[in-house]
Write a structure and sequence with these properties.
Layout (H helix, E strand, L loop, with lengths): L2 H10 L2 H9 L2 H9 L5 E2 H8 L3 H14 L2 E6 L5 E6 L1 H4 L2 H14 L9
Antiparallel strand pairs: 1-3, 2-3
Length: 115
Amino acid sequence: MSPHQNLETKYEQCPVIKTLEEIGSRWRMTVIHVLREGDLRFNELKRATGANSQTLSRVLDDLQELGYVEREVEDGSPIAVYYSLTRKGEELLPAFDDIYEWGEKWMSADGGAES
């Protein structure tokens, strides 16, 4: 086995890579980030994320299937549907805080010239 094959095997099982493959799309990360504010209805999420209805619907379905988001339907007239983070989704929030701090440092207006 070549040294490169060892690296490939190592990184196929890497939790960082596996996590980014699962939640690493712009829209998935955006929805998780916005839901940190609490339960939101579809149109509130749409406004907050800037996603179109089709994209948001697909992303919410994906995040529900993966166990990051739950959907709750409240009876009434009209029926209200709320989305919120599951425990799995909430446990990602400290990582988002770290990414935010990193972005503040390195994604500044001057292009992160700090070294």
